[in-house]
Amino acid sequence: MRIAIVDESAMRASIMEDGLADLPGCEIFVVSQRNGLLARIAEIEPDVVLMDLGNPSRDVLEEYFAVSRALAKPIAMFVDESDDDAIAASIDAGVSAYVVDGLAAGRIRPLVDVAIKRFNAFARLQTDLDEARGKLAERDTIDKAKRILMNTKGVTEPEAYAELRRKAMSSSRKIVHIAEAVVTAHELMGD
C-alpha cells in the first residue's frame, strides 16, 4: 500500500510515520510543501492520503479541499480544532475521515482503515447511484420512443414496445439503442 502523508511539519509527519511503521508492505511518502501538491500526489499515486493541517486558516482548508475533490482516494484529514463548517466542507470534498485533535501514533492505523472502508462504501453507493441514473435515462429514452411510435403510427403502448423489441432482436442490439435511433430520427425530421 502506498500512503502519502501531507504535512508541513516534519514532527507531525513523523508521528504519522510511526503509527504506520508496523503496517506490512507499506510505502510511505511525505509531502511537506503545499506548492504543486496535487501534481506531487498524482506522481506518488498513493492508495491513501493522510493530511495533517494543524490549525489551518480558511484559505488553507479550501486549498486542501480542492485537492481532496480532485483525488479519488481515501483521505484522512487531521486538524487541531473542531469547526462545523469545515467538517461539512470536508465531507463535500470527499474526505473519508475528518479527525479533530486525534494525532497520535497509536490511532493512525485504525484511522487509515476507517478512511479506506468509508471511501469504499461511498464509492459503492456512487456506483449504484450512477447505475440507477443510467437505467432511468434509458427508461426515459425508451418511453420517449414509445410515445413517438404511438403518435406517428397510431399504436398502443404495448404495441410500440413490441415493435422496439422486435427491431432490437432482429438487429442484435439493445432496445435502448433502437429507442435512441427512433428519438434521433424523430428530432431530425422536425416533428
TrEMBL record:
PROSITE patterns: ANTAR, RESPONSE_REGULATORY. One of its GO terms (biological process) is phosphorelay signal transduction system. It holds the Pfam family ANTAR. It comes from the Bacteria. GO terms for molecular function: RNA binding. This is Chemotaxis protein CheY. It comes from Croceicoccus naphthovorans.
